[in-house]
Amino acid sequence: MKIALMDSGIGLLAAAAAVRRLRPDADLLLSNDPDGMPWGPRTPEDLTGRALAVARAAAAHRPDALIVACNTATVHALPALRAALEPALPVIGTVPAIKPAAADGGKVAIWATPATTGSPYQRDLIRDFAKGAQVTEVPCPGLADAVEHADPRAIDRAVAAAAALTPPDVRALVLGCTHYELVEERILEALAPRRRPGLPPVDFYGSAEAVAAQALRRVGAGPAPGAAPTGTLSVLLSGRPGPLPVAALDYPAGRLLAAAQTASR
Length: 265
Hints:
This protein has helices at 13-22, 44-59, 71-85, 98-102, 120-129, 143-148, 152-164, 184-191, 208-218, 252-264, and strands at 2-6, 27-32, 65-68, 91-92, 106-112, 133-139, 172-175, 203-205, 233-237, 240-242. It is of the alpha/beta class.
């Protein structure tokens, strides 16, 4: 079984690591776009073109499923990707986990890129799935770029700025960008001093685990975390075979995947 994941950069690491934990025997193909990143500032048409190129590069290696491990690409390019590749190749998008986060009501915050915050796409998700919850949309300028470049000072600045906009009694936090899942611990550390006394830690809701499970369902496979760790890892950099980006090794998910790439050589 081979699962491909695509993104402009290393935001796909969390979902790839989730697939690896669920199926250590699955081969993984990571297809990103260093020549065209970041995708966020691009027009929807331009972004869709870049996403199609990255997806087709992955599809040429005949994976069993393709995960679009990028919220922005899912918003703008998912219909085009599915039109181009399905039904031969199942394409799984990434949607912020608003529905499960809001299930118990209370206060919920959604951290997302400035382009996504307040967008019709996110507002529609809130309208459809956050009934009974009080939702605060928190823009996080610069956080995805800081994570992409593994810049600790920039990460801390961006996280601190977003934490200052987050209600101190928020119950749940939705991570609306795949990059943010790589710095979940830093986000928790930034929120903790602002919590009201007696409140439990914030519950985090990312997309990686759900997307990984959905990819397995689409190919008719189930979780087998105890399987032999025989899965390989390969990487495409704007269509060219290459190594994991160096910045990936700054994160536990990247180091987990790098071990598989080394073992496969």
